[in-house]
Amino acid sequence: MRNIIYWILSAFLTLALAIVSLRYVTNFWLLSFVYSFQIHLGVLFVAVSLVILAVRRHVYGFILLLASVFLIAHGVIMLREFSEDHGVADASPIFRLMSFNIAIDNWKNSTAITDMVLASNADVVNLLEAKPLTFHLQQLFKVYPYHIGCDHGKDSCDTLVLSKRPFVTRQVASIGSLRKDRLVISSVDFGGQTVNLVSAHLSKPYFDDYQMGELEDLGRALRSISGPLVLAGDFNSSAIAPSIQGFLREQKLKTIAPEPATWPSGAGVLGIAIDHIFARAPLRPTSLKRLDDSLGSNHSGLIAEFVLDGGDQSSAAR
């Protein structure tokens, strides 16, 4: 009986390891969300490996344990690849940005979310699925007189970008073919330095291959932008998902690792980071924190501060 249990558990764990390890062979869209959980699954696999070894101490059990540890270690290494160094941490931040997917059906918390935004002291606020704030817009506009989005009633209120300073440029576009107007490209002057601000909301990775098309469109948009750049939004994938990794490498985007877990919000630090704030040199993030309260959303919001590398004040955004 002990041998039967041992081999049954070993077979199931071998299959699970093989599925997660497919990322090293192919970036199959149906498994993209699984890849985002590589570190979490690695921890689970280590636990199962230890159970297997407790049932029967055999060399194959140690091989499974080693493979599980490798998944964890490589996941951590992948996260560190996009980590920004902190060599400019002593410089004064030039602006603060908040990004939060408030959930499109989160009407009962709309007043609390509005109060939280107004109290955030953020210079720019990126709100996704902002429909519940429809009846609080005028209150928000008193503190943030410049905005993009939510101009034609609640049915058009999806992405809402708020700013205390006027926009130098502004554009609303679509990425992919699943949903419209989920890309906002703007720029704001902060003390003589123009910074590009990009808001993106990607589809879930298991919705066929829509997310791959969205990343291609987003990449083309970012390649046309020069100067300091911030990309914020809901990617519905971790930074270790192969498609997101390739995108970050191509665009030379960085963040602060480890990123705060944002989904599901109820899981706290045990969740994964699928909401992101990235920056491209000469802009650098100096802090990245999760908001204290998700206020009814299944996502946690983020707030970040940025400085310019080397005090470069000459690079104008296009």
UniProtKB/TrEMBL annotation:
Domain annotation Endonuclease/exonuclease/phosphatase: ranges: 98-299
Pfam families, sorted: Exo_endo_phos
Example of a GO biological process term: GPI anchor biosynthetic process
Coiled-coil regions listed in the entry: none
Residue spans crossing the bilayer: 28-52, 59-79
InterPro entries assigned: Endo/exonu/phosph_ase_sf (IPR036691), Endo/exonuclease/phosphatase (IPR005135), GPI-anchor_lipid_remodeler (IPR051916)
GO-annotated cellular components: membrane
GO molecular function, one term: endonuclease activity
Protein keywords: Endonuclease, Exonuclease, Hydrolase, Membrane, Nuclease, Transmembrane, Transmembrane helix
Descriptive protein name: Endonuclease
Source species: Rhizobium pisi
